[in-house]
Amino acid sequence: MQHKQPVLGVSSCLLGMNVRYDGSGKQHSFISSILDKYFELLPICPEVAIGMGVPRAPIQLRILDDQLHAIEVGNHAQDVTPDLQAYGQQQATQAHAFCGYIFKSSSPSCGISDSTIFSDHAVHTGPGIYTREILHALPWLPVIDELQLDRKETKDNFLEQVFFLVRWHQFLAGPMTVKNLVDFHMTHHLTLSAHSEKSHEALSASLSGLRDPLSRDAIDNYLKQFHDGLRTPLTHNDHVRMLTKLQRRLSTIINSGETEKLNTEIRKYTENLESLTTSLQLIKKLAHTYNLYDLSRQAYINTTPAEMALRYSQH
Contact 18/25 with Cβ under 8 angstroms? Predict the structure, then answer.
């Protein structure tokens, strides 16, 4: 099935659908009013999908006989664990086409890490039953919940992973050759370097041993390693480090007026007086002016309108 926009899976209640156990929804304005302009949002409620009604008796996670179960509150005999697991495995196949997934926090089916788990001796937290299947099958899929989405650092990191996966899906539409994978990697090496020079060096080294035809395992391993490198959110200092690195590279090529302008923009960003986008757009312009092809094609400085609106806006 072809999609006009990149697809995000979203817990249905976060889009305002009244599918929760008590018949309510939990609409999240950033998802329903902002993200929907740039993505196709696919609503998914696993509890409704497996036939649980609305409203319905709530479920909880409990350790029984050393195994995790999703059971009806007050009725251990009503166990929906196998159904939620089977639906998660089914949805994981469809989620291969997703660029990210937004889950409902704390949900016994959809929580990422904060679902309450009861046992006879303790209470702790972990992923919901359905989410476990998605995370197991697709460890490279960007995931977030609505509480994490409200924090700028985690929101920005999620969106960076999402836009990387958008470009990765575009790459997969072409021929799977070592040359094309290396070219993709070279286009993203500044992005990975911003997160970790060590990760960049390790992944670059791993490419040198690849030969055509590329195996599915080799392609999946590259994606997983790159995704792992992106997991740590970038800080303001990380971006300052990258801008300084690019500034040094350009300083031997550009004229004095351009040098002064670039230095001014980077100083403004460093002092939190200007957005990152301003410096990146100036660097991109200079790279084109001086025919620096390897720099001008870098994903790090080629932010799309959607990225600029979502990652660098005040939302």
Answer: yes
pLDDT digits over 189-210, tens only?
999 999 999 999 999 999 998 9
CB 286 within 8 A of CB 262: yes
Contact 314, 278 (CB under 8 A): no
CA-closest candidate to residue 276, choices 313, 230, 306:
313
pTM of the model: 0.94
CB 47 within 8 A of CB 13: no
Instruction: Give per-residue pLDDT as tens, 210-225.
Output: 999 999 999 999 999 9
DSSP structure class, residue 215 = P
* Alpha carbons 34 and 11: distance in angstroms, whole number: 16
Map residue 268 onto helix, strand or coil: helix
Q: How far apart are CA 294 and CA 315, in angstroms?
A: 32
